[in-house]
Write a structure and sequence with these properties.
The protein has 298 residues and is of the alpha/beta class. It has seven helices and twelve strands. The longest helix is centred in the N-terminal third of the chain and has 17 residues.
Length: 298
């Protein structure tokens, strides 16, 4: 009976919240069937970095709600962003509808404001990062969204010299099979790096669909050119970042060995959002190194 009562209360709260409608400000179709939505932020919608919400879009379904992580920082007060990958019926329909609208817009056809409803926000385990001094963020694919919000918010607090920010260093690892997936948040990463005057962020990107063997004949010319540009200009030719994209899967043994060497006695907190299969491996690595470990649901 208690469980049923809680469920009724939750439904009432969600119903009351759903009366407050907002609308899509802008939409962008990104590589690998990812849709970036910019939504007008209601004046009473207060959230923290890495929070998620439930979204209802009547144009797709009049009754379905779906959870998505907010990918923008809470310091932005005019709008919030969601990065949604088309992986099911509802998200696939949403993606197709906005792709069609965007194609029409490119032909100078006006796109009406699309009404949506927001339910939330809801907190995630990554909120604990503000209690950390040394943090390691590991993202797989679209699992990067909570960290996109966090990185932007941390940068804002760092520049504002917020007393609530205890962080001294943030290591960020993002891996994805496809190279063009990094376009989702490349502008954000470039801005993050450009404003990082004190080497506060350590950004590492891995293309897991690329071969580790750079000596493979068909890749020799490509990697030779990339290496030459990097050596001369100290910038990755593909991303414009100060570190080159690494081919192949991250070598977690090597990475955690380096982190432990760098922080032999300090408290290090690791946060992960990505494929479930990797979570157990990362938890074991953290246990071996004496690091704390928290994961998001993918």
């Amino acid at each position: 009976m208690v469980g049923e009562g809680i469920d009724v209360v939750e439904r009432i709260i969600r119903y009351q919240r759903s009366k407050q409608t907002t609308h899509i400000v802008n939409a962008e179709v990104l590589p690998n069937q990812v849709l970036a939505l910019e939504i007008a932020r209601p004046s009473n919608f207060s959230f923290q970095a890495s929070d998620y919400l439930y979204l209802k879009c009547p144009n797709v379904s009049t009754h379905e709600w779906h959870p998505f992580t907010i990918s923008s920082a809470p310091e932005r007060d005019d709008a919030l962003t969601l990065h949604i990958r088309a992986v099911g019926s509802w998200t696939g329909t949403l993606f197709s509808q906005f792709r069609s609208l965007i194609q029409k817009r490119n032909k100078d056809v006006s796109v009406p404001n699309i009404p949506v409803y927001l339910d939330g926000p809801y907190h995630s385990p990554s909120n604990h990062i503000y209690q950390s001094e040394y943090a390691v963020l590991i993202a797989g694919g679209i699992g990067v969204t909570p960290f996109a919000s966090l990185l932007q918010s941390i940068l804002h607090r760092h520049h504002a010299k917020s007393e609530s920010l205890k962080l001294k260093k943030v290591h960020f690892y993002w891996f994805d099979r496809n190279l063009d997936s990094f376009e989702w948040l490349l502008d954000m990463l470039q801005q993050l790096e450009a404003k990082d005057e004190f080497d506060f962020f350590d950004i590492n990107l891995f293309r897991t669909g690329a071969p580790k063997d750079r000596a493979a004949p068909r890749f020799v010319t490509l990697y030779t050119a990339l290496d030459l540009v990097f050596k001369e200009h100290k910038v990755d030719l593909i991303t414009g970042l100060k570190k080159q994209i690494q081919p192949g899967r991250p070598e977690w043994d090597k990475i955690f060995t380096q982190l432990k060497k760098q922080y032999p006695d300090e408290k290090v907190d690791v946060f992960y959002c990505g494929p479930r299969g990797l979570s157990r491996t990362l938890r074991h690595k953290c246990n071996d190194c004496g690091f704390s470990y928290r994961k998001e649901n993918f």
